[in-house]
Structures are given as structure tokens and as C-alpha cells.
Amino acid sequence: MSVPALPPLMYVTSRRLMGTGPEIVDTLAEALWSLPPESVLVYVREPDLDGLALTELVRAFMPVVHAASQRLVLRERVDIGKFVGADGVHLPENSFRPDEVRQLWPSAILGRSLHDVAMLASPGDVDYVTLSPLFETDSHPGTPPLGMAALEEARKSKVPLYALGGIDEANATSVLATGVHGVAMMRAAWRRVAPL
Questions:
Q1: Between the chain's N and C termini, which has fewer beta carbons within 10 Å?
Q2: Model confidence pLDDT, tens digit, residues 2-12
């Protein structure tokens, strides 16, 4: 099943940056309402949350995301995604096989994290991939960045590719100019609206 065209932006959630209480929903709403409809895919990453806490967070986010005419995927938890009516799931590099997820949830937007350009040759049955880290990033300290040169090879990807890692307002335009599908942001997405 094909999904509607994917937006050029991906916003990756981080409770550390957005807030840990009810203000997290306000932070999300403020960020999304400042954007045109259909322009961002919200990726609820939050790997440290247990099933119940993740379910509650995504349930709180879903009405805000859909009211802003955006879409939401969550990290790995197919069961929670289907249960709460999310738009899809994003698989870490060493997670379920994409074809297994497709069998369980054929209509899902299905993404996958990659950290090596060579993996782009066979990403599996996914709708998009993220390639990271492009630049140095606080979320993966000590991980060598792939750099802009990696995007030359990445442009050959057969699926839409979001560049991720250290992308902000200063470098997003040059990253998009390489021909990648989009950019994924964590810190830059929430910096202007986070109550920190």
C-alpha cells in the first residue's frame, strides 16, 4: 500500500527539550501550528518510556498532530501505534524486519534508521529512511558524523531519505540542496518553543 507523499520535515521528539509535564503538548502544538499543513512528520522517539507511558504520550499528541494536518510515527512499537491510531512506525536499525511489520500493519507509514550509507542499497520494504548522524549531535555523543559527503552517495537511495543529526536553521538549506527528500530535526525543532 502506498502512503501519501511524505513531507520535507521530520520533527523528532525529546522530552528533555520539550518538557516533561503537560507543557510538552503545548510545545508540540506551538511548533506544528507555525507550519503549513502536510509539512512535517512527527517522530515520537522516546526510547526510555515503557508501554503505558508511551501510549499516554502518543494519545496526547495525536489530536494535536492531526488537527494541524500533520502525521505521526512512533519508535518501533507497532502494537501501540495501531492501538492509538498513529500513522505509522519508525524502526531502529536493529529492530523488526520491515516486511514483518508490513504484514501486521499494511497501511502504516514505515520508516527505518540507518547509520551507514552502504545500508541504503537494501533498506527493506520501507517508505523512508533516516541517515544519521550527518553532523555532530548531543543525542549521540562520540559518534563520528557522516558529513555532507555522505549525502552524495545517499542521493541514490531508492526510498525518500531524511538527513538527521545536528541539522538546524543554519545548515538545513544546504542539506536539502543535495537532493535528499527532507531533513529531520530534534533540537532545532523545539528550541524556539520549548519551555526551558
A1: N
A2: 567 999 999 99
